[in-house]
Specification:
There is one protein chain. This protein is mainly α. The protein has helices at residues 23-40, 45-67, 74-78, 103-145, 150-153, 164-172, 176-204, 209-235, 242-262, 264-278, 280-291, and strands at 8-11, 14-20, 71-73, 85-87, 90-92, 95-97. The strands form three sheets. The chain has a two-stranded antiparallel ribbon with strand order 1-2. The radius of gyration is 27 Å and the shape is globular.
C-alpha cells in the first residue's frame, strides 16, 4: 500500500503503471523554486555582474551630485592656455562642475547594462539611483540642520576655515532648484538613452556597439544638458537670460560628447572583460536576451 508521502501511487488494475499522486505537483513546484533561487543567487556570475555595474552607476550618480558644487577650470587643470569661447553673445572659458568627471563613467555603465541586461535593467538601476540621490540629500539636510558643537565651529580656523558650520552648509546644502533640475534631467536622460539605444540596436543587431552607445548618449545628453540648466538657473532664482542658457548648455553638451567619444575604447574593454568573466556562452545568452527586452 502506498503511504501519503509517496510521490507515485499505483493505478488500479494496472500494477505495472504508476502515476503521480497529489503530493507530486507540490514536490515539482518546490524543486523548480529551488532551481530558480539558485539561478538568482550571488553564486550566479550574471547576478554578481548586474549588482557590480548597478552599484558603480549609483555611486557615480550620487557622487556627481555632491562633488558638483566645485567648479574647476579645465584649461588650468590640463596646463593649457584658456579657450575663450563666444556663443550667442556670451563668452567664457572651459569651467565645469567637478561632477562632470563622473558622468562619462555613468554613460559607459548605462550602455553596458543596456547591452547585457536590457531596458528593464537600466530603468531599474536608474530608479534606484534617483531614490538614492533623494535619500542622500535628505540626510545632508538633516546633517546641516543638526546643532553643531560650539568648539567644532572654529576648529579649522588655522586651516583657513573660520566657520566649519557655514562651510559644511555651503558644500552640502545645494539649492532646491539645483536638486530638482539634476534629478529630473538624470531620470529623463536615462529613459531616453534606453529608448534610443534599443532603436539603434534593432537596425544594427550585434554590430557597431560604438554607434548605439554614442548615439544614445548624444540624444540623451542633449536633453540632460539643457533640462538641468533650465530648471536650476532659468526657472530658478537666478533667471539666466536665454543667450547665457543656450551658450553654457552648448558648451556642457560638447564636453560630454567629447568625453563619450573618448570613452569608446573603455566600452570595448569592458565588453571583453565581461566576456572573459562570464564565459562566451553566458555572455552571448545575456546579450541576446537583452536584445529581445
Amino acid at each position: 500500500m502506498p503511504t501519503p508521502n509517496d510521490d507515485f501511487a499505483p493505478v488500479q488494475d494496472t500494477p505495472d503503471r504508476r502515476v503521480p499522486n497529489a503530493a507530486a505537483p507540490d514536490a515539482g513546484v518546490a524543486l523548480a523554486a529551488r532551481a530558480h533561487l539558485a539561478h538568482l543567487s550571488l553564486d550566479n556570475r550574471a547576478v554578481r555582474l548586474f549588482v557590480m555595474l548597478g552599484a558603480f552607476l549609483c555611486v557615480d550618480a550620487v557622487l556627481a551630485e555632491f562633488i558638483g558644487v566645485k567648479i574647476f577650470a579645465l584649461e588650468d587643470t590640463l596646463g593649457i592656455a584658456p579657450l575663450n569661447w563666444n556663443l550667442f553673445g556670451t563668452h567664457g572659458s572651459l569651467n565645469f562642475t567637478v561632477g562632470t568627471l563622473c558622468w562619462p563613467f555613468v554613460f559607459i555603465l548605462t550602455d553596458t547594462i543596456n547591452e547585457f541586461f536590457g531596458a528593464r535593467g537600466v530603468r531599474f538601476i536608474s530608479y534606484v539611483a534617483v531614490a538614492l540621490i533623494l535619500y542622500a540629500f535628505a540626510f545632508a539636510w538633516l546633517a546641516i540642520h543638526a546643532a553643531p558643537a560650539g568648539w567644532w565651529i572654529g576648529a579649522s580656523a588655522n586651516q583657513g576655515v573660520p566657520d566649519n558650520q557655514a562651510a559644511f552648509a555651503a558644500i552640502f546644502g545645494q539649492g532646491e532648484w539645483s536638486i530638482l533640475g539634476s534629478i529630473v534631467a538624470f531620470a529623463l536622460g536615462q529613459l531616453i538613452d534606453v529608448a534610443v539605444f534599443f532603436r539603434i540596436r534593432k537596425h544594427t543587431g550585434e554590430r557597431m556597439v560604438w554607434l548605439r552607445a554614442t548615439g544614445s548618449t548624444a540624444v540623451s545628453q542633449l536633453v540632460d544638458s539643457f533640462v538641468v540648466l533650465y530648471i536650476a538657473f532659468v526657472l530658478g532664482p537666478q533667471h539666466w537670460p536665454t543667450n547665457q542658457f543656450l551658450a553654457i548648455g552648448t558648451v556642457n553638451y560638447a564636453y560630454k560628447m567629447l568625453a563619450a567619444v573618448a570613452m569608446i575604447p573603455v566600452l570595448y574593454a569592458m565588453r571583453h572583460a565581461i566576456r572573459w568573466y562570464l564565459g562566451h556562452e553566458l555572455e552571448e545568452h545575456l546579450r541576446l536576451d537583452a536584445a529581445r527586452d
